Structures
1.
Amino acid sequence: MFSKEQISLYDQSLGRVTLVGAGPGDPELITVRGQRALREAEVVIYDDLANPELLKLCPTARAIYVGKRAGRHCVPQEETTALLVAEAQAGHHVVRLKGGDPLMFGRGGEEAHALAAAGIPCEIVPGVTAAIAAGAAAGVPLTHRDHASAVVFVTGHECAKAETRVDWAALAKTGATLCIYMGARRLPQIAAALTAGGLRESTPVAVVTNASLPTQEVRVATLGSAGELAPTILGKPALIIVGEVVRLAEVLTQASALAVPASGVVELANVA
Ligand code: SAH
């Protein structure tokens, strides 16, 4: 939250923007602060990965959809950013609701930057990012200390700029668990690049689609066979986890079947 002093630094006639992480899909996975921001919002700008159920928290707010179903393929990022600035300059409290965490591969950083350049107060409310939700969904402890001491969040989307292009061979040598966003389409090429970089073909891979939603699916393969999964996951949000920690999934999935939802207690002690 902003202090009075911070707000007085800005033009009082301006509105403000709160960039809110909606979490991975399940509406219960938004933070308490995110819920409060929605309840206080006058305008909500949202897209596909944010669950529209969350709009029930702000029934009187004007909701503006800027996702892929908005007539065209997608509202261009510059238009969304300009809309945020314009709504705030009109004096509104705007919530920009973004799937997962607003700064994780979501271009929230660009939006926050544009707001700062326009002198508009902007608060960022973090969210549960897809990699964390996918680990929980698949029962994969991303940094189990016996198997991985690092975790990498990486995009599988081929970037045009050479400087920011992913060096898969370098990642293959880190021993880190790899959490790959936006990698479904290029899964065969990514798996090939990782094995060429030194990871064994037997390295386990989990692919979690629609993590945290009732439509969630978990598929487990190896780097050698992962390419075959690509056609079954296209068109769904998919998070790919690569690393030895994926072998632990079975144990934790059994444990979550023993979970007592009312109290949230998981009887790990009952698991062999
Ligand atoms: N800001 C978001 C990521 C946006 S990039 C976050 O923090 O999670 C979009 C990519 O995120 C998708 O292509 C997919 O790889 C991943 N993703 C988002 N939601 C997901 C979900 N519920 N299940 C699996 N992957 C998801």
Note: The chain is about 25% helix and 20% strand.
2.
Amino acid sequence: MEKDNKPEKIKDDVVVTLNYELRVNGEIVDSSEDGDPIVFLQGSNQVVSGLEKAIYGMKIGETRDITVSPDEGYGEYDPDAVTEVERSEFPDDFPLEPGIEITVHTEESDDEGGEFEEVMEATVLEVGKSVVKLDFNHPLAGKTLDFKVEVVDLREATEEEIEHGHVHGDDDEFEFDDGDLDELEY
Ligand code: ZN
């Protein structure tokens, strides 16, 4: 990749390297500190839509404060996404505590009767004697997001990255050329 080939500013199909700090109600909830910026393909919904929209046109070295409303962030809080599960569904030694985040695997069936596994993240809200209350909302659902971002680097995406809709990096050895296996990618 030639150095002088760098895109001048952020537009679709550009790979963006971004330092960010995310605050909610004035408190830092996430950041890319420790020299670990996020790298993503602009225009492919890899970051929340409000952030993606707001960085179009930014140049390397530029910083910006961006406020994202819930509807362009992690969505509005959905009370219906809170559900109760029998405590007996959990192994006896499972460390159930309010506030912890767990991964839930469920067997679902498709229209043709085939079965597939769905994996969802949930937060434990309450632990009762017989039931456990789980919240399937994203932890940042309903929150206004205050980002402070700095563009660290920009490069043109490869044709393959544009086709796949994501950035290829150090994990390329896990890439499969066979289209049937594409679902294994992350
Ligand atoms: Zn890929």
Note: Strands lie at 14-24, 27-31, 38-41, 63-68, 82-86, 101-109, 115-127, 131-135, 145-156.
